[in-house]
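Lab notebook: predicted structure, single chain.

Context: the supervisor wants predicted structures on file for every construct in the current expression panel, including those that have not yet been purified. This is the next one on the list. No modifications to the sequence; it matches the entry in the shared construct table.
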Amino acid sequence: MDLRKIRSDLEKSQIWLEKIKSELEVSSHSQNYDLVILDDIFPLRLSAFRIAEYNYYLNTCPNSLVLSTATAFSLLGQNIGLADVVQEYECFYPQFKGKVMEFDFNRLVKAKLIYTIFLNNIFNFIDFIEKNHLPFVFTLYPGGGFHIEEEATNHKLTRVFASPNFKKVIVTQRNTYEYLIDKKFCTPKQIEFIYGCVVPSDKLTSNLYPKKYYKQNKFTFDICFVAYKYQPTGLHKGYDLFIEVAKKLASKHDDFHFHIVGGHEPTDIDVIVLENNITFYGQKTTDFFPDFYSGMDLILSPNRPAYIPGAFDGFPTGACAEAALSGVALFCTDCLNLNVAFKDREELVIISLNVEEICETIEYFWQNYNKLSELAKQGQLAFQRVFNIDYQMNPRLRLISECMGPKSSLK
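Prediction complete. Output recorded below exactly as produced.
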């Protein structure tokens, strides 16, 4: 008996079986879809706005699919594989079982339309899109590789908009719109301006907990900071300024308490003097926030474009929108004058980057708590109007349906 020949034959059989398996997988996923979404972080539930937007598409377009690379899990500090994340996602959303699969550049994909969000995503997928001859629409959100007046950004935009497969781009902030026009990356007819972003407003507003009011249902005046930790000191999101404000306020008022959600830790910036007045929660998913926000008096977001030259947040941040939707008074910066929807001092408070001024503003509303409560109520109504998920999604669905053609399966 020639053991070497037997081993060789077994190895060849194994290779043949793997090849057949691969071909079957490609074949099984090469059906004609109406909509295929490409992403680098879905279906991680920590990215709540992706869950809200992509789930809406999956629900309204049954003949759709999400292909994910999972390469951005690490950005949110997650050391976990795609298979485990998909399994968890399908436990929460069993109606979408089998709708999320691993991206494979060599997979044959047939679709009426490709959709994704962020510049880095569309740039990283553009070769795959063109290889499969697929038309595409994408949302150019702030962040994700989009930095005003940056050479790398301009290179990516040039590559993407020069593609013969490009159909439309959705922009959510007016400076993004102006930049694309001024730099002649595309024409006004190729741009759809939809202010704001998609947040899980339905989850937040349908599960509101009874509001707890200072000196009525609780003894503390509670201020929160909610933002992902993208860098140790959180300069971009203003975590350093938040801590300065907290220290000044806590030194004068024993009943002020500060709450940190999103990954920052006590060791990032020295908070020893706040030991009895600060709580860290780590990263949380959407289901945590209704109860959490019911006990918050205001959310403070002193974010500024200081992370990378040309980088900026949309106004307001997704976390701020979720807090306001939940009835929390919103105090935030608007360094780039992007606000086009909300009334200052009536529906929110636009703050400066000056710590003393921030403290004075907060103390004014602390002393006039009835005005803070009214501000929170009016803000909640305004955000429910602008960030209602149907209000945000309807123009997106209309655009996507138009780009897919008359025979799409949109509900």
